[in-house]
Amino acid sequence: MANKDLSTSADAAEATVLSGTVNRRRFIAGAGVAAGSLAATAYLSPSLLVGSASAASLPFTQSAASPVRAARVAKPTNNILVVLYLRGGFDGLSALAPISDSEYYAKRPNIAVPAASGLAINSDWALHPALTQIKAMHTAGRAAFVPAVGASFVDRSHFNAQALTEIATGSTTSFSSGWLARYLSATAGTVESPLRSFGSGAVVPDSLTGSFSPSTASLSSLSLQVGGNFAGDAASVTRTLNKVYRSVSNPLLKAQALSAINAINTVGSTLATAVPPKNLSTGLGASLFQIAKLINSGFPVEIATADLANFDFHAAMGSATNPKGGQYTLFAQMDAAIGAFFAYLGTNASRVTLVTMSEFGRRIAENSSGGSDHGHATTMMVLGGGVSSGVKGIWPGLTNTIDGDVIVANDYRTVLGEVVAKRLRPVNLGTVFPNFTMPSYIGVMA
Questions:
Q1: Among 225, 180, 223, which residue's Cα sits nearest to residue 198?
Q2: Which PROSITE patterns match (predicted)?
Q3: Which of 253, 287, 314, 403 has the greatest number of CB atoms lying within 10 Å of its CB?
């Protein structure tokens, strides 16, 4: 069908929809605009962000009839939290090496970071030689490290441990939302931008499950997907949707819908013409570039997530001084992407705090295959704006262990909770992290 005919069809549809003779939801369904999300919630928001994007699904025990409810608070924030999940079991003993501990070198004769080659933080700790950008951030006072950190439970299944740590309610997956979704719900304003939260990846992480956060590996491809009689004429459908939602009586639905439509019209075009700099064009860099571009373009992002996988080095981890080794290569990719991300942010870098987390760490002793197996505690990094630089928390050493693993001396929710409390909107941390009593802060934030 020619564009002129499509336009005529859309104009006719507009007239019938606005006159009330066609159900609004039926028109939206015909236009291919996520009617299912409208059925699940009174808020439209990211349900319109279709194309290559997906909206956060409802997890475990939560049904579509009972979405996360939002308590209303007014105070916004100009700060941004980026959560980088390092999937596969991040080797905290390689990222942040306890160079003054003789047990470290006794248990890891081939894969330990040599004291002379590590990037010294102090006389006891050194970063892996590949983490040069992160070391520079520490020197600038913008990097904190928490060793012996993780979840109190022991679960060495990647799938289970990732779900448990992202839901963040202890050792149960029966809760209805992830920890970031609970924060978003508890601090939601009367009207929220569809891009207050964003998952930079093909799949919405469990931490955002239960929210209405869009997630996509390619924001540049976002557009209003239309089909049926309106195929190929998104402009007419967009015009009709604007008129439809301006006519609704519910002010919240009206504001959310118009905001979502506006996001569709601007996000894709903003990213489509963007040229990523070096180290932000592929892999983790590409994910972080989407986040940085949205921030620098003025979109009201407050929460963003990204992933980096393949840390499961049971074999062929490689020497810490070999740039061609498996773990060295992955560390270098992560380091370069993080460094380029903060450099690209420019003046906005002071607004952004990036936190790394993983499902668990690796065992203290290397194995016979030149790798390390699933362990318990790992290391978290807190980088960027508002950070109090240095090594933080309790270090139990490598002789007092749990089944040959580093003991969790610092609960990961303590780190996340401190960042949330000191950088984001006021919130009851008991709502964000139920079944957990926050101890004193460990000082990762200034």
A1: 180
A2: TAT
A3: 287
